[in-house]
Every structure is written in C-alpha cells, then in structure tokens.
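During the reporting period the student researcher (J.K.) took over the structure-prediction task from the postdoctoral fellow and processed the backlog of single-chain submissions. One of the processed entries is reproduced below for the supervisory committee.
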Amino acid sequence: ENPTGITAGLDLTRGMIERAKRRCRRRSLASPALIQGDCRSLPFRSGSFDVAFSAYVFDALAKQDTEKTLLEIRRVLKPSGRLVLLHLSASGLWFNLFWRTLYWIVPNLLGGCRPIEIADELAQAGFTVSEVRRLRNWGIPTGIILSVAATEQISGAEV
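J.K. obtained the following structure tokens:
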C-alpha cells in the first residue's frame, strides 16, 4: 500500500499487464499504473522513485543486460533510494545441478530463468547491499537483497 505516492508496475508483455490488472480487481486493490515497457530502458524520469522492487527479472535477463538494467533502476531512484530484489539463488549446489540439467533438456519449461548471484553487479551499478536473506520455497532457493543507491559518482557522472 502506498497512500501518499505513486505505485507503478512494468512488464515487457501486454499479457502480464492484463493479468496484474485482473489480480488487482479480484482482490479489490487500487490498480497501480501498469505500463508495458522494457527494463533496459525504463520509461520514467530520473529520480522518480523511493523504492524499486524486482522479482525474478534478472534470472531471465541475458547477462549483458544485467548491468544496463541495474543502471536504469539506479537512474530512476531518488538519491539513496532502495532496491529490493528477489532472485533464484545459485547458492544450492544440488539445486543448481538439477536446474542446469533440466534447462539443458527443456529450456522453455523454465522460461529462460537460471539461478544467479548478483551482489557484484549491484556494487558496480552503484548500490550498497544492506541485507541478504535466503529462503527456500518448495525447495527452490530464493535470494532477497535489500540495497541502497549510493550517492557517489559512477563512471564520472553523478547519478
């Protein structure tokens, strides 16, 4: 709930936007601004948000798009804004072996997702990790990262 601010959601596909709208209606929630767009080029002004939340996005991105997306999130956050990130964690050896084998056999079944670790990329994009939690849901390891946008300069440009 965000009674004094604006809540916005973004997805690449129209189908997921419609699904989110239906879910909000079923739960009698005020629908946030749901926008079809690409996380590698966010359609928001710089410094627009206090918090960004990303659930299982980076698991499906190509590795080369991770940095660009993190920099875009950093751009749209206010100074010292926060990023909460959920991801399929690569911390479990047996799970990783199982997932990679299944991915090799039927990648479409897994939607292109893969277990990742992303702390280094967060630091390179100007985030300071403040907390990391790991949990398992149905045996699937999930990483939860709370990070804060650093207020220093990145690559010679103030963000």
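The committee noted the following: Helices lie at 14-26, 63-76, 93-105, 119-124.
J.K. will present the remaining backlog at the next meeting.
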